[in-house]
Amino acid sequence: MGTVRREQHIECSPATTWDFIGDPARLHEWFPLTDCRVDGKKRWVTTSTGLTFEEDIVLLDHELRRFQYTIVNNPLITGHLGTLDVMDDGHGYTLAVYSTTMKPDVLALVIGGAAGVGLKKAKSLLEGTV
Amino acid sequence: MGRRILFITTDQQRFDSLGCNGGTIARTPNIDALASQGINYTRAHPQNVVCMPSRSTMITGQHVATHGVWMNGVPLPDDAPSIAATLRTAGYKTALIGKAHFEPVVDPFGRFVENKVAASGEETAFHVMPDGSLVPHRGFDHLEFATHSPAASLHYSAWIRENHPEALGMFLPNLDMDLEVNSKGGGDTNAPQVHHNPINKEWYHTDWVADRTINWLDSLSTDDDWFCWMSFPDPHHPWDPPQSELGRVNWRDLDLPAGYITDAARREEVLRNKPAHWMGWYDGSFVSNYEAPAKWIPATLTPDQVREVNAMTHIENELIDEAIGRVLTAIRARGWQDDVDIVFTTDHGEMQGDFGFLFKGPYHVDGLMRLPLIWKPANSAHLAPNVVDAPVGLVSLAATFASIAGLPAPEYVEAPSLPVSNDDARSRGFERVLTEWDSVLFDKVVRSRTIHRDGFTCTAMGRGMLHDGTEGELYDHRNDPLQQVNLWNDPSHQSLKSDLLSDLRDNLPRTVMPLRTCDAPV
Description:
- The complex is a heterodimer of chains A (130) and B (522).
- With 130 residues, chain A is of the alpha+beta class.
- Chain A has one domain: START domain (Alpha-D-Glucose-1,6-Bisphosphate, Chain A, domain 4, 2-Layer Sandwich).
- Chain A is built from two helices and seven strands.
- Chain A is globular and about 45 Å long.
- By secondary structure, chain B is an alpha/beta fold.
- Chain B has one domain: Alkaline Phosphatase, subunit A.
- Helix content of chain B is 27%, strand content 18%.
- Chain B contains 14 helices and 17 strands.
- In chain B, a hairpin with a 5-residue loop joins β4 and β5.
- In chain B, α7 runs parallel beside α10.
- At the A-B interface, β1 and α2 of A face α5 of B.
């Protein structure tokens, strides 16, 4: 399994950050996607190239501020777990961490790259610089 | 009206593949003529031996430490310096046709401009500068992209899909279902990445790149100044030239290359005297980088497979030479022949059997580092033909293009324009050429820094998974042209080694930190 982690400091309270990026239905507002749909424990996300990924929501813990999901029913992806953690940086601001572990290994790099730009966009939106 | 520039690149081509450089198999009369009429550099090195970092050096005129594309999969920022943008500002019409690869190809999120431009069908993409002006992507007015097969979502793929959809499945899939470089064998010998491709020659990407270049040149006015980067994806694997061309070179007729050590025991002895990542790759225990098939073990490579890979490569190089010939004919037909500078090179080499390997990786030897580089100045420049054996790097290309256009070297470049003679090289300090490698493929980390000077190549390994930072390689090219004797620990060479390492440290720019993230495998 390939594993990648991306981190982003956000000058915003963890509660406010979690309200935004912890909402599974708002992923497309900050992640490089064109569409996102949630139905119960299922989520479907679509990229600008027209690819749609079906996902199972594994965990949505508002106390821990942790979201976990796994891509399912994909002929190429034989293993996956994505985790988003929103933590206090010790000064009242946010440390957001997005990690992904998957097979094929190298796809972790691609998801990690998208997560990196997504977290930067979330930072801009939450800090009001966009 | 100034001097126009045709910049021709191939992908993964060895120095010794051309007739002008001693090659005896592939017939390359057009490139050989450029060499005989121009300046042939016999010791040109890339600043990194894989595509994205090396190409980023070409366009920025910067070492890898500065432009920051430290391995494949790290995108060159959209606002990175570009010699094409500099030339365009000076009034040049600009185009890049063929393989770009400043940004990852594997891009399911559609993040990267190269893929977006191809998907949109637009001629280029524009970026808004801080002053509100619009600048085309990397300074190119016109972009048409291709890579090694129609599988990617680039212009060539769209052209095949639209015009010859039956050809989509004819190429060898470059990646397997694990998205690793395909180790699948084919051809007559089951060599990895060899494939008999039934595609028509006219539909193959080599001819497509030439056709699209001619089409763009035809769109220009006679008085236009222009800079055209014509970038062939071959002879990079997969080795799948049109099957109709296989009769050009029969692999059964080929001698084994000089760098292939036939005796396995002797080969392994040579490898054991190199840093540990050499033997680790050979026996399949340490595949450090994405650019070689993860599931292929070099120790299984047979002499016939080496012959067949070489034959396929020679065929691809002949096709490239013929395609170049067609473009040169088109240039003459426009009456530009006296005012066009032509620069031919490649981004890195190919092992092609050396030491029992194919493909590429963190191995700083001539197979990967010694590149063909030819500059045929415009006739109007009145520069005498020459052979330059001083060490030069692709890092000098950007300043060279600026000088051709009559511009000063841009402030962003880190190397002067190419010398036009050995005397010129001596007077302008062309003493050394530097190459960097960094790769982090999950838990596999390899770092090295290399200097070539005074006929020696010296590589210092950084700390990594197999190295503690004390290992390295030192080769004496005069006495050991195949780099089979590692002098790193030889007592009589310690003073020289120390001097070379000191020179390396003094001349390599400090790496810009933090390193940018790797966002894709390639």
